[in-house]
Predict the 3D structure of the following.
Amino acid sequence: MAVKEFPAGTQLIQSEQNLTALHVIAKGSVCATYPGGTFYLKKGDVIGVCEIFFGSHFITYETEELTGIASYPCTAAQLSLLMQKSVDLSNMIVASLFRQFHEIYDQYALMSFDCENIYHFLMDRYEEYKSFCVKHGIAPRALPDMEDLTPLTLEEDLESWLDGYYEQLTTMVTSKSSKFHSTDFLAGVVLKADQDIHRIISICRVFYDYKSEIASLLMNENHLDFFDLYAGLLYKIGANDTDSTTLSAAISTMMIQLEDLPSIDRDMYQQRVAEYRKKLETLGERSEEDTATVDDVPDVENSMNTILTYAEVNGETATAFRTAVDKFAKMADKNASDDAARKLRLTITKQFYDIYEKAFVKSMKDPASVPKVVKMFFNFGYVDENLAGLENAAYLYRIVDKLPTDPKRKVYTAYEWFTAIYQGKKSPSRNEFDSDFPTFLREQKMTGNITAADEARMLNDPLEQVLFEIRNMFPTVNKITFGRVLSFCPLFSEHNVLKDLEGSLVSVDMVEAAFRKIRDIDFSAYYREVIYTNPDIGIGKESIGVEVLPDIILMPNVGTRGIAWQEIEGRKRTTPARMMVSVFQMEDLTNILVRLTGDFRWEMCKRVQGARWNDVSEASLTSEYFDYIQFYRKNRELSADAKDKIKLSMQKAKNSYKEMFIRDYEAWILYEGSGSPRLNKVSRNIIFTYCPFSKEIRQRLMANPLYKETMARYDIKLAQKIHHYDNVFQKLKNTGTPIPEELQKQREYLCM
């Protein structure tokens, strides 16, 4: 089939257009949009595969770059016949279908969470506002629309099993050993999935409308909004009041929320924020002592030139980057969602990582001679003093040589992490397809992209290893941790700094304090089970726990989220997990790490259990929790009210078993650990079995009838384990054999 090329910005298909063909992307990329959602198609993806059942498009497609398209005339009735003609085309259609399904489902899940989150955010802020008013003797202003504010309810939501069903179906159908290669069967899978995708997008449209309606409560043209309530209260109490910091933080959080709401008028938002910041200046929040000029820090002047020169970027690329950054800096709304703004951010993003790669490679030749401005680029995404704001640039310049990280204490800046990989101290992370570096090279060899000799050479080449990390993990994780993926740009920009930089800089002490808080409650969170043997002293096999804390890598952005990227290195279970957060964290770091710990517990259990992670015949955290959610309607231990709450919680958790568990785990650590019940009986028993409280907390909660029975059973089993080790120790003492340190530590661990 002939390939036809289309330049960037070409609208290939408009929503509601008749569907007469499937279109395979031979090269380039395509942006797919629908109300409330956007995803991207790349080489090998098939346009129209999500819609063929309906005979018309409900998604709009536009090229992102020069794109080649091969078109195959086809309707729903002709699909099976088309798939019969080519096994490769059939496989491509099915693979693309599943990828698009998961993309759209993930957006549904995120929008569901966002709708629930913004509702509770507004309710909490309203009560907080009224409390502050009472405290300061100020009459609170009323927002009439708050009286009508209700959480979103769907007439018909997706089935709770749908995500798991398609995950399993994807594995079954795309497996090389799959028996499900009948074209009639595959065509049926496509047409059935189309119906589910249409349902998902219809619900996304409901989410989008709800967010648009509720957004006006945060900010509107009449100033009858939360932004004005909080800003007005801050003006009244003054900048020197003890509560001003809390109010400023709340306003900053609102600004983050507003940036993610496409229905908010961007001009109005910019004007309101400018007015707010101007009034802050009059309150004395920015005193003369805090202001900075280029003269104060002369080395940051012409920062971009310093970076580009150091990276030895060619003239054409350097000019293109300067032009793009300058255009970005002049944008009134840097988070704008129009095509021009989006494409500019994408252009800058690609250029940024290319420059980062060149600069890093050069820095490894002589690390001691890296200019401070380049270090700011490596660690913060800094490129320009004016874009960053002179005060911010001055602060970054002051701290860049004394950052509060320490690889020996498992907290790395991005630059320290890449350096560790280059030096062979760490292995590259798995890519977004879950392939580690050796696997990636094998795949490249199998596809003919490299030779066997290339594979052997590259496997142990430190430069190839670090480039794999920079090209794969870095761009994806940097965007995720930033939090606002649709408006992401890797450059450090003043408009993203919504809180005090010094207070939001993540340090090794902050990380350790957060993990200490988590482990004080869930003491076994990062313990891995290994087998200890010592036949010389009569020890056959003993299961012992080894604590392995995760590596924390700080991405160079001002962000709001974290991600648990992988639970182990390679195949060894005793290697550290990898978790990433922003170097400047706008949200509470402890809460983020609690969530990542819940994610780690789930994924680590899945890895240990393998294919039987959800098989309840093999008791485990994931299998028992999966069984509990899957059959909660039939569970006699749950009341009707509890069942209704589970149904609602599953909607809030995006119908994801993992997300449901993570939310319950957050409640376990943040609330149940302090004696404030949030979970039902069944969920509490499961989590306590596999994530038990420390001895101190168990003793404190023992009198609580909600915990008494569960803890009593746990203490009996624990006593049996300790008794076993006491017997082992006694036998060793009787023969005059020293007790191995590993076994001694295991008994101490059990006593925790």
